[in-house]
Amino acid sequence: MAIVLLSIGAGAVMTMQKASVQGNLDARKADIANSIARTWIDRFQRDGMAWTVGNSTTPTTSLARATMLSTLVNNGGAWGLATPIPTSITTTALSPCYDILGRELDQPTISLNPSPVQFCVHARATYLSPLNDLLRIDVRVIWLRGIFSLSQTGAPTAITDTGLAASANLNPATYRTIYATTAVKESPAQ
Questions:
Q1: Which has the closest alpha carbon to 144: 129, 134, 154?
Q2: How many domains does the chain have?
Q3: Does residue 66 belong to any structural domain of this protein?
Q4: Which of 78, 111, 127, 164 is such that its CA lies 20 to 30 A from the CA of 120?
Q5: How far apart are the first and last CA of the chain?
C-alpha cells in the first residue's frame, strides 16, 4: 500500500515539475521578447529624428532620410519583417531575428541548419494625422510555443516565408506574440 501511495505522489511531483519548467521557459521567452520589442521601438524613434519638416529651401518633408520609417510606410500598413538599420549608420547591420538568449543574428548565422532563430520582429506603420506628420509604429515579436526554433517542426521560417510576416493573425496555438506601439512625429525643420 505504501509503495502505491509513494508512486502516485512521485507521479504528481514529476507532473508539477514539468509544468513548472515549461512555465519558467514561457516567462523567460516573454521577457526576452518584450526586451526585443522595446529595442526596436527605440530604433524606430531614433530613426524618426532624421524625419524633418520642410523649410523654405526644401518645402517637402524628408521621410526618405528616415530609412527604416520610409520602408515601413512604403509597405502600405501591412506587417513585414522589421527593416535592419543600414550599415552606414552602425558598424554592423542589425537583424530582425534573434536567438534563444535574445542576441541578434546575422545573415550567415540565420542560414545554418538547424536555424538558431527563436524570435522574429515584424513591424508596420500607419499615419495618424491627415497631415501625414505623425506615424503609429507597431512592433510585434513572435516565437514558437515550446522549445523549438522558428525553422523546426515544419513551421514557416522567419526569414524566407513572407506569408508569416504578412499575416495579421497568428495562430495562438502555434505562436506566442508580444506587441509594442509608439508614435513618431516629424522633427522641426533644421
A1: 154
A2: 1
A3: yes
A4: 127
A5: 84
